[in-house]
Amino acid sequence: MPSNPPLLKGRKILITGPTSQVARPLVARLAPNNEVIGLARFSREEDRAGIEALGASTLAIDLAEGKLDSVPTDLDYILHFAVVKSGDFEYDMRANAEGVGLLMSHCQNAKAFLHCSTAGVYDDQAPQPLTEESPLGDNHRVMMPTYSLCKIAAEAVVRTQARLLNLPTVIARFSVPYGDNGGWPWFHLMMMQSGAPIPVHTDGNARYNLIHEDDYIRMIPSMLAQASVPATTLNWGGSDSTSIEEWTEWLSEITGLQAKLSPTSETLRGVELDPGKMHDLVGQTEVPWREGLRRMVGKRNPELLR
Question: Which pTM does this prediction carry?
Answer without folding.
Answer: 0.97
